[in-house]
């Protein structure tokens, strides 16, 4: 647990320190966020606010992950005769999750950069964005279902993901490795775009993502404490997960980075995360669900992202079929803005919705453990 705490603190401290410096640098480079003229008029005052803040917390999360491993290397392998089975080097899970996080962030960075150069809210096309995310998700999927090695040769033969559908563990059916790769592509695209659509108000996506990462940190650490690959697995009360401590470590680092970034991103935001931030966060959240074998738990844990995405789908479908709009504007947070709600009120209430989703997901996770234990 010490490694997870250190990783979270390092990410928090570095993000707190580097974000205002990045904001000043981006401001000098005139890397301001272009604002849609057809959106809420209150957003026009945000024109010129530095964007691409995601670059900062991607960098700090990776550094914090490395710091966590330095702590693991320094910890004793055994205490009072009890040997701890934990990774010291970078594992398969860490490699594929960090790789997915960084590459999807790069797709978002290209989008942000084009918006800045063109001084227009339109970056790369929607098809190009989906293509970029699909390529990153495909590589992640192939490694997740086929790659078994790790840099420190810990002789674990399991893969990061299995061909089985999971809820709090594998429950079936077997959809084959190819089927799982397709599912990974779909869910990475869906979650990345869900976070991207939610990122429309100051601090909204940051706070919601932070809650999701805290949940995965708890799930990962609980799986590690009841790990089938640990020193003393408890019969059927163990989780058959590739590297549960890595899951907790990466999720903790990401949560810490979100805490630090929220300080500067909350209303009135001094910097925006941009697509480089929102796409990377959504992709990592999806990746953590596959690594922790909580695939069907993901829509509950990310309830706010599901609601936001659904509002856009309902709006588009209704307009194409009937020529009428269900909401004043989509995503749904802008509907409430046009209805007269203040930005802070919307953000806090949506955070409550995100928190409820996380609480329900954790409730299902622990209830299933108690059911098996009973």
From TrEMBL:
Pfam families: Glycos_transf_4, MraY_sig1
Annotated pathway: Cell wall biogenesis; peptidoglycan biosynthesis
Chain segments annotated as transmembrane: 6-26, 47-68, 88-110, 130-151, 171-192, 204-224, 244-264, 296-317, 338-367
Membrane recorded as keyword: yes
Catalytic activity, as annotated: UDP-N-acetyl-alpha-D-muramoyl-L-alanyl-gamma-D-glutamyl-meso-2,6-diaminopimeloyl-D-alanyl-D-alanine + di-trans,octa-cis-undecaprenyl phosphate = di-trans,octa-cis-undecaprenyl diphospho-N-acetyl-alpha-D-muramoyl-L-alanyl-D-glutamyl-meso-2,6-diaminopimeloyl-D-alanyl-D-alanine + UMP
Cofactors (names): Mg(2+)
Membrane-topology annotation of the record: Multi-pass membrane protein
Highest taxon in the source lineage: Bacteria
Keywords per UniProt: Cell cycle, Cell division, Cell membrane, Cell shape, Cell wall biogenesis/degradation, Magnesium, Membrane, Metal-binding, Peptidoglycan synthesis, Transferase, Transmembrane, Transmembrane helix
EC numbers: 2.7.8.13
Any one GO molecular-function label of the UniProt entry: transferase activity
Family: Belongs to the glycosyltransferase 4 family. MraY subfamily.
Chain's role: Catalyzes the initial step of the lipid cycle reactions in the biosynthesis of the cell wall peptidoglycan: transfers peptidoglycan precursor phospho-MurNAc-pentapeptide from UDP-MurNAc-pentapeptide onto the lipid carrier undecaprenyl phosphate, yielding undecaprenyl-pyrophosphoryl-MurNAc-pentapeptide, known as lipid I.
Protein name: Phospho-N-acetylmuramoyl-pentapeptide-transferase
